[in-house]
Write a structure and sequence with these properties.
The chain is mainly alpha-helical. The protein has a domain of 209 residues: MetI-like (MetI-like fold). Helices cover 68% and strands 0% of the residues. The chain is built from 14 helices and no strands. Helix 4 packs across helix 8 and helix 9 crosses helix 10. The longest helix has 38 residues.
């Protein structure tokens, strides 16, 4: 008996699931390879460009430090060399004793610290009032403050001097401190204003529920939270006061013992000659405190700027 069509041999083979054919990756073009190589090494290439620019930017400071250890002859005839042939400390001794930089340093520390304290008090309270308080005409006030930034400082020194003289405070560092800290510090006020405006309202509401008033909330809650801005403003104002020249010059003309380091640089200028190496040593001495303060406050400085801009 022959096998019928229903036999296994006569059945057509059932088609199984088809497997997708492997697709070969397209060949990489030269442009793709170049793009990937650039994406991988672009940071290093930027470093190759920025390192020479950084060295060029820092070179004047390094040269001043080097000149403070050179003799007058070597500094004038040594060209751009930054390595002293015969290092000496006579320039620092002459700047500290003969040019009275020891006294000027004490005056500058007193002057700068007092200016920082006054500016912090005024800027923090003004920034809090403008950032959190319901001050009538707040936009107008901010606009006027910003407009004062375009007034040259030399135009206001005469009325400020007359005002301080009428108060009987022109003979001493206190007059110079008030003249330096008195003019509106717009940038510092705007930094505090922006930071306080970004603090959540719930914190202020919680303080009010606990019975704190406007000023108690400021001193106990808001001001401690503004520590990054306090560091930034402290650094700004300290550098400005430490390097101040015009205001201390005006208020210390009658008494050279009250001069600050910025004004004391004139001690190295004579009628016919200039002590350049002593001037370099004095400049290096005056820069050391600024570097120390910046290193100590650089973290809060960055946090304060980032927080104020984010707000």
């Amino acid at each position: 008996m022959t096998a019928t069509g229903n036999s296994p041999r006569s059945r057509p083979a059932e088609a199984g699931p088809t497997q997708p054919a492997a697709v070969a990756p397209p060949p990489r073009s030269v442009a793709d390879s170049t793009t990937r190589w650039w994406a991988r090494h672009r940071i290093n290439l930027w470093h190759l460009l920025l390192v020479p620019l950084c060295a060029l930017w820092v070179y004047p400071f390094v040269w001043v430090v080097s000149a403070s250890f050179k003799s007058q002859r070597e500094m004038l005839l040594g060209g751009l060399s930054i390595i002293p042939d015969k290092p000496t400390l006579d320039n620092f001794v002459r700047a500290w004793n003969v040019a009275r930089f020891g006294e000027y340093t004490i005056n500058t520390v007193t002057f700068s610290v007092a200016v920082v304290i006054l500016v912090l008090l005024v800027s923090a309270t003004a920034g809090y009032a403008l950032g959190r308080g319901n001050v009538p005409g707040r936009k107008v006030i901010v606009g006027v403050l910003v407009a004062t930034m375009f007034i040259p400082h030399g135009y206001t020194i005469i009325p400020v001097f007359e005002l301080i003289t009428s108060l009987g405070l022109s003979k001493g560092l206190i007059g110079a401190v008030l003249a330096q800290a008195g003019p509106t510090h717009v940038i510092q006020i705007l930094l505090f204003m922006g930071y306080f405006a970004g603090i959540p309202q719930e914190l202020e509401d919680a303080a009010q529920i606990d019975g704190a008033g406007f000023w108690r909330t400021f001193w106990s809650v808001m001001l401690p939270l503004s520590r990054p801005v306090l560091g930034s403003v402290t650094l700004f104002v300290f550098i400005s006061a430490w390097n101040a020249f015009f205001v201390p010059l005006v208020f210390t003309l009658g008494d050279t013992r009250l001069r600050t380091l910025g004004v004391g640089m004139y001690s190295f200028y004579g009628q016919y000659t200039t002590d350049w190496t002593g001037l370099a040593a004095g400049a290096f001495i005056s820069l050391i405190p600024i570097i120390i303060v910046f290193v100590c406050l650089q973290k809060t400085f960055v946090e304060g700027l980032a927080g104020a801009v984010k707000s």
